[in-house]
Amino acid sequence: MSTYLFQNTYIYDGQMERGLRCDVLVENGVISKIEAPNTIDDGHVSLIDCNGEKLLLPGFVNGHTHAAMSLLRGLGEETPLMSWLKEQIWPVEARLTPEYIYWGTALALLEMASCGVTCFGDMYFEMDQVAQVSLAMGMKCALSRGLIGEDQKRVDENLKLIDDWHGKKGLLSVQLGPHAPYTVPMNAMKKISELALERNVGIHTHFLETEWERQYLRDELHCQPVEYLEKTGLLNTPRTILAHGVWFLPEELPLLKDSNITIVHNPNSNLKLGSGIMPLPEMIDQGISVSLGTDGAASNNRLDIWEEMRHGALIHKGVRHDPTIIKAKQILTMATLNGARGLGFEKTGLIRETWDADLVLIDLDRPHYLGFDVETLPVYIVYAGSSTDVEATMVKGQWVYFNGEFPSVDREEILKQAAQARKALIS
Ligand SMILES: CSC[C@H]1O[C@@H](n2cnc3c(O)ncnc32)[C@H](O)[C@@H]1O
Ligand SMILES: [Zn+2]
Q1: Which residue's C-alpha comes closest to atom 14 of ligand 1?
Q2: pLDDT for 247-287, tens place per residue?
C-alpha cells in the first residue's frame, strides 16, 4: 500500500473551527501525521505537492441511495411518488437481473467517486452485486437488501449478507432494509427490529417522505410517527436510518433526542418529487443526527452530494426567511461525519490522525475560490464550490478517482455494459 504526502495543503472538517494549512501523511490506509506545512520528510513517499492551492476534505457520504437506479434515470419523470413507484419504477425493477444491478451500481459509483463520495448507504436488490462492485472499485458501502412485504426468504437474504460481507476489508457494512411503513406490515417491521438487535446491525428504511404517508400511519396503522417507531422497535436497534423524515412535526422531535436515529435529508429528491421540505433547523436544535443523501438517480436526477449540500442549506434559509438558520459548517458535518456514523463506519468522516484516509482533494485554484481564507473555507465550499472542483478521491489510502480517471475499474467497459443493461430494461 502506497504512502502519500499531501504537502502544504489546506484541510477542513466539520468539527474544526477554521481551515488549517499543513502537511498530511497517509500510511497503511490511515492518516498518520498532520504537521506544519513543508515539515514532513518527503523521501520514500508519493508526493502530492499542493502548493497552498488545494484543500482536503473528509470523503463525502451519500447516506441514502439506490445506486443501480442510475439505469432508470429519466423514467416516469414528473410524477408523484406513489404513482411513480407503482406505475413506472416497480414494473421495470421486476426485470432487473444481478448483472444489470452490477453494472448500474458501477455506473453510479463512477458518478459518486468523481463528486468526492467515498461511502454510500445503498438499499436495493441483489446486494451481493453491490458488495462486489464496491470492493472492486474500493468504495465504502453500507448494504441493505430492500424488504417489501413479509417474506422470510428476503429477510434470510439480508441476514446472509451480514455473514458474507459485514466488515469486509473495512469497506462494507450491512443493515436490514425494510422499505417503508406502507410496504412492510407492522408485525414484520417489529421482527426486523428484533433481528437487528440480535445481530447487532442497523436498519435502513424510508420514513415520512410524503404527507400521504403520515396520513397512512394515522388512518391505517392508527399510530403517530414516533409511536410507530417505538411500537416497531425501530428506536431500540443499534442504529436506525430514516431516509427523508420530511413530515415530522417540530413538536415530535424532542422525543427523538439522544436516540439511535439518523435522519437522511434528501433535499433534491424531495423537491423534485414535490414531497416537501423537512424541519431541518428543529432537528438540529434537538441534537438529532442528520446526514445527507441523493436518493436514487431516477428521482434526483443527480448523484452529486455538492448539490445536496448547497440546496440543503439554501432551501431552509429561503423558506424560513432567515440566512442564519443553517450554517455551512453544519452542512459539511452532515455530508461527512453524520453520514458515516449513521451507516456504522468508525473513524470515518474527520481529518484526524489514526482516522481512515477517506479524502477528497479539491482544486482551489479556480476563479470562484478567489478571496477564500481559513475562516471562510466552509462557506466557499458549500455556496461557491461544485463537484467539478474535485481533483481526486481516496478511500482508505487508495485512489478511486484521480484527475478524470478511475484507477481501479475500466470506465469504458462500465459505460458499455450499463448502456446495454439500460437498453434491455427500457425498450
Ligand atoms: C426495495 S429496494 C428499494 C426500493 O425503493 C424504491 N425507491 C426509490 N426511490 C424511492 C423513494 O423516494 N421513496 C420510496 N421508495 C423509493 C426503489 O425503486 C426500490 O424499489
Ligand atoms: Zn429512497
Answers
A1: 206
A2: 999 999 999 999 999 999 999 999 999 999 999 999 999 99
What pTM was estimated for this model as a whole? 0.98
Instruction: Identify the residue whose C-alpha is closest to ligand 1 atom 18.
Output: 89
**Pair (149, 85) in one structural domain:** yes
Identify whether residues 261 and 141 lie together within a single domain. yes
Number of neighbours of residue 91 by Cβ within 10 angstroms: 12
| CATH code assigned at 376 | 2.30.40.10
Closest residue CA from atom 9 of ligand 1: 296
Does the CB atom of residue 148 touch ligand 1 within 6 A? yes
Rounded to whole angstroms, how far apart are CA atoms 418 and 424? 10
User: How far is residue 265's CA from residue 250's CA, in Å, rounded to a whole number?
Assistant: 15
- Which structural domain, as residue segments, surrounds residue 362? 4-58+348-402
**Would you say residue 422 lies in a domain?**
no
- Three-class SS state of 268: helix
Question: Do 125 and 202 lie in a common domain?
Answer: yes
Give the tens place of pLDDT for each residue, 44-85.
Answer: 999 999 999 999 999 999 999 999 999 999 999 999 999 999
Are both 125 and 253 inside the same structural domain?
Answer: yes
Residue 288 grid coordinates = 438529532
Domain boundary among 290, 315, 342: 342
Which DSSP category does 318 fall into?
A: H
Task: Say yes or no: 300 and 377 in one domain.
Answer: no
ipTM score of the complex?
A: 0.99
Point out the ligand 1 atom lying closest to the alpha carbon of residue 266: 12
How crowded is residue 301: how many other Cβ atoms within 10 Å of its Cβ? Answer: 20
Distance in Å, CA 101 to ligand 1 centroid: 14
Are 29 and 99 members of one domain?
A: no
Residue to probe by mutation, ligand 1, list 79, 89, 125, most atoms within 8 Å of CB: 89
